[in-house]
Predict the structure.
Amino acid sequence: MSYEPPTPPADLATEVVNALNESTPDHLREVATYAEVLAEHKEREACLEESADQEEVEERPDDLPDDVPAKATITIKDINGNRYYYWQWRDGEKVKSKYKGPVNSDG
């Protein structure tokens, strides 16, 4: 075992690192136990939310391509005076689009 203090994770907030450094060994063990239980709880909640989201979008429109997620919506884009339908969805921080077809003006 090293006599040097451990290096905290780079993305851990300075306030948290300082609070941990000032804690007793017993308190640190309590925090570690709590952090493990909290992480498990948050993972379980995320799984429940994900399964609820999947249940809500079970029905896929017949014309939805396989590579477009069921949560996609249809958007109309104006390009050079012409209007087109696009499937649009969020993928993390990005908004993705896929061409669907022209908007018919005789509808």
The mean pLDDT is 84.
